[in-house]
Structures are given as structure tokens and as C-alpha cells.
UniProtKB/TrEMBL annotation:
PANTHER family: 3'-5' EXONUCLEASE ERI1-RELATED, 3'-5' EXORIBONUCLEASE 1-RELATED. It comes from Hymenochirus boettgeri. InterPro entries: 3-5_Exoribonuclease (IPR051274), ERI-1_3'hExo-like (IPR047201), Ribonucl_H (IPR013520), RNaseH-like_sf (IPR012337), RNaseH_sf (IPR036397). GO terms for molecular function: 3'-5'-RNA exonuclease activity; nucleic acid binding. SUPFAM superfamilies: Ribonuclease H-like. The keyword Acyltransferase does not apply. Residues 68-205 form the Exonuclease domain. Keywords: Exonuclease, Hydrolase, Nuclease. The keyword Hydrolase applies. This is Exonuclease domain-containing protein. It comes from the Eukaryota.
Length: 205
């Protein structure tokens, strides 16, 4: 479920200069400027493909409904045929300022799978994540606690601050996270229960 794919700068400029993010955001857009230490997989996802500039430098933006967009893209255990349950093995979030379109902060961690702790060759080939990356990492329960701490630190739990998650499809927050939390008996925080589906919004453009 990689979040990145190349789009031409001219098309990006047109979308962002004419549409509010509450109507459409980016079509699998590659963000540039991930912080050092955020992890090789996150840097690969956020690495620039085809243009070396920040989004904000390209154009001006109309007023947005939200103060922050939280771009999220899980990786999970997988195989052919599919294993059950799937488990999140990478949990990245990018905090994007809704006014400047600048990346202000990132959260990133790999996650230790507990039901199927050994990654399959298919999973490694698809995601680029090897066994050493998940061994000894926090479990999903621990990661969710760290996410909540990060959200609080970034001021995202302040009732006066409007933020929303952004995903490429509904899989991450409609199926993957709730499904794994239900299997493990974990609660899903309210802030994970609404999101912008880029695929759907771009289809409305």
C-alpha cells in the first residue's frame, strides 16, 4: 500500500492552485523533506521523485478547513494466499501544515508482529521490510500509546486544532487498524475514525 508514486509537477500545480484540500488533496503524492532519523522506509516513501522542491514553494494555496493533514500509510504482513490476521509492521505519520503545506513533524516506527512474527519472502519483496527491521520493535499496543503521546506533543489533541488523517484508500483506517485492534482487544482512538481518502477525492476532481 505504498503512498508514493510519480506525478508531473504541472498537474500538481494545477490541482493545488484550484482545489481546496477539503475537496481534493494529492493523487499518491510524494512529499519531499522527511526528517533525518525517520527511518529508511519512510524516507523512501517521502523521497522526491522528479522534482526537488517543497510543495509550498510551487504555488499558493486556498484556505483549508483543517489546520493539519496527517498523512498515514501502513505496511502490513502479507502472503499468497493471504494470511489472517494481517498485522501492521510499519506505522508512519506525516504532519502537514494546512496553511503552508510544509512538513512540520513525522512519526515513524516499525511494529513487531505477534501472531505471525516471521515475515514471509512475499511480504519482504512487496514492502521492502526485512525481518531485522521488525524484530525487537514495539508491539501495536505500545505503538498506539506512542502515537497518542506524539499527537499530544504536537498539539493535535487540542480541541481548537482541526486535523484529519489522509490515506490512499480506505484500507488503512477502515479495515487494517480496526481489524487488528479488534483481534487484539485494543481500542481505536477517535482521531483514527475519520479520514480523507485520496483515491475517492481525486476521483471526484
Amino acid at each position: 500500500m505504498l503512498f508514493v508514486s510519480y506525478i508531473k509537477q504541472s498537474r500538481l500545480h494545477t490541482w493545488l492552485s484550484t482545489k481546496s484540500l477539503k475537496a481534493t488533496f494529492f493523487d499518491r503524492f510524494t512529499f519531499f523533506g522527511a526528517k533525518k532519523g525517520s527511518g529508511p522506509m519512510l524516507n523512501r516513501k517521502l523521497g522526491c521523485q522528479g522534482f526537488g522542491t517543497s510543495v509550498a514553494a510551487m504555488t499558493s494555496f486556498p484556505p483549508q478547513r483543517y489546520h493539519y493533514f496527517l498523512v498515514l500509510d501502513f505496511e502490513a504482513t502479507c502472503d499468497k494466499p493471504q494470511i489472517h490476521p494481517q498485522e501492521i509492521i510499519e506505522f508512519p505519520i506525516l504532519k502537514l501544515n494546512g496553511r503552508t503545506m510544509e512538513i512540520e513533524s513525522t512519526f515513524h516506527t516499525y511494529v513487531q508482529p505477534v501472531v505471525h512474527p516471521q515475515l514471509t519472502p512475499f511480504c519482504t519483496e512487496l514492502t521492502g521490510i526485512i525481518q531485522d527491521m521488525v524484530d525487537g520493535q514495539p508491539t501495536l499496543s505500545q505503538v498506539l500509546e506512542r502515537v497518542d503521546e506524539w499527537m499530544a506533543k504536537e498539539g493535535l489533541l487540542d480541541p481548537s486544532v482541526k486535523s484529519i488523517f489522509v490515506t490512499c484508500g480506505d484500507w488503512d483506517l477502515k479495515l487494517m487498524l480496526p481489524g487488528q485492534c479488534e483481534y487484539l482487544g485494543l481500542q481505536v482512538a477517535d482521531y483514527f475514525k475519520q479520514w480523507i481518502n485520496l483515491k475517492k477525492k481525486y476521483g471526484e476532481y
